């Protein structure tokens, strides 16, 4: 399964955003177990923004980062003590834009199991793994319908082990499932099951431009 993933991602042509926005990058670590898992983090409860939310390790690009892959690996090392040399890069996914006006580039990497990872308590409360099968079998709790640029996005919302995976992280997951594993899932296609509708929200960059 992972060998097919590598081949599919290497043949994938991810979309690049043309928006001139601050840059960020995340790592989507797949743990190379007999039953592979996806590693995620939960942001610390004391943070002013996104507290308690589930996310992939990553953050904003710094001036000294020569590229966004460096950003993703540096932030992963800072946040969860993941050594960059233990990450085998499998591929890159399309840019996504956060509501706070960040252009985020996801990278998919393979890591060995049972590394001594530790969450940085200033940023994270927890590191946890979810079996890839949970996503491959589309065991979503419901679907969030989020208006974006005048069209609805159907974003899966997963509940697993007391954690909720939704929003930007779930959008990245949809591309990983569709392009990396050939799953019949899409942000543009209305799925069966419960739908939860969100009001239209402007990106921070759009709000600033309209003032």
Keywords:
single chain; 211 residues; alpha+beta; Nucleoside Triphosphate Pyrophosphohydrolase; eight-stranded mixed beta sheet; four-stranded mixed beta sheet; 12 strands; 23% helix; disordered C terminus
What do these coordinates show?
It is a single chain. The radius of gyration is 17 Å and the shape is globular. The chain has a single domain, classed as Nucleoside Triphosphate Pyrophosphohydrolase, CATH 3.90.79. Helix content is 23%, strand content 32%. The chain has 5 helices and 12 strands. It has 211 residues and is an alpha+beta fold. β9 and β10 (151-160) form a beta hairpin.
Q: Please, how many helices?
A: 5
Portion of residues in helices?
10-25%
Major beta-sheet overview: 8 strands, mixed
- CATH homology superfamily name: Nucleoside Triphosphate Pyrophosphohydrolase
Terminus-to-terminus distance? 50 Å
Shape: globular
Counting helices, strands and paired strands, the structural category is alpha+beta
Ordered list of secondary-structure elements with their pairings:
Blueprint: H1 2-11, E1 23-31, E2 37-43, E3 54-55, E4 58-60, H2 68-80, E5 88-92, E6 96-97, E7 103-111, E8 124-131, H3 132-136, E9 142-148, E10 151-160, E11 163-165, H4 167-181, E12 195-197, H5 204-209
Parallel strand pairs: 1-7, 9-12
Antiparallel strand pairs: 1-2, 1-4, 2-3, 2-8, 5-7, 6-7, 9-10, 10-11
């Amino acid at each position: 399964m992972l060998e097919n993933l590598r081949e599919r991602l290497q043949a994938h042509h991810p979309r690049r955003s043309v928006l001139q926005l601050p840059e960020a990058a995340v790592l989507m670590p797949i743990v190379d177990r007999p039953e592979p898992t996806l590693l995620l983090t939960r942001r610390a409860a004391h943070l002013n923004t996104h507290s308690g939310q589930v996310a992939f390790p990553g953050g904003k690009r710094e001036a000294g980062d020569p590229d966004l892959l460096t950003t993703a690996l540096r932030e992963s090392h800072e946040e969860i003590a993941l050594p960059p040399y233990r990450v085998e890069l499998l591929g890159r996914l399309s840019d996504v834009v956060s509501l706070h006006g960040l252009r985020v580039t996801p990278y998919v990497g393979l890591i060995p199991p049972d590394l001594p990872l530790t969450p940085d308590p200033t940023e994270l409360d927890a590191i946890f793994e979810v079996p890839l099968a949970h996503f491959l079998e589309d065991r979503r709790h419901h679907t969030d319908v989020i208006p974006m640029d005048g069209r609805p996005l159907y974003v899966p919302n997963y509940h697993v082990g007391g954690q909720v995976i939704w929003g930007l992280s779930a959008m990245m997951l949809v591309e990983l499932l569709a392009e990396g594993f050939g799953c019949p899932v899409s942000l543009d296609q209305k799925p069966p099951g419960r739908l939860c509708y969100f009001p239209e929200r402007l990106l921070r960059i759009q709000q600033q431009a309209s003032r």
